[in-house]
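User: Can you predict the 3D structure for this chain?
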Amino acid sequence: MTAASIWPKVVDLSQHNTLLDVAGGSGAHAIEAVKAWTSLKAIVYARPFVCKIAEECINAAYLQDRIKIHEGDMWSAPFPSADLHFYSDILHDWPLEKCEFLMDKSYKSLPTKGRIIIHELLFNDEKSGPISTSVYNMIMLLWTQGQQYSGKEVVSMLEKVGFKEVGIFSTGFGSWSIVTGL
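Assistant: Here is the predicted structure, written as structure tokens:
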């Protein structure tokens, strides 16, 4: 929850109406984003069994009037309408081609002036650290198809599919960063 509570204070979300938390798990990031930005609503988009967990967490936070659940498969189903797409700890699960697929899907789904935010532990450009990202990367290499990416690699993914004004921001919480683009 700490990492989820920090990033919404790093980027201005005041121009956005609806955050789509792609593969949003428990809904922690959506919960903290709508708490930080009172005019923001959110949708947690996940597979059915995960949506049940998210619904419990959202109800416990008394935010069911501002956060909705949408069951779906990010690989095959269309995204619900939103002007802000958020991915936390998703890209590191997948190889580059699949990450680019998701970035392109978001780009095509977002309206003009829509924004994407990627929340990950990022390697430096040389992929030599920080140590916390290196350790996390070893875990990813053991049980996923992916890896931890560098900020430069995530920026490249976003720019390749058309996002503009791409930037990297430290959240100020450990090695967590966000990469955002319009």
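Strands lie at 18-22, 41-46, 67-71, 84-88, 115-121, 167-170, 176-181. The chain has a mean pLDDT of 91.
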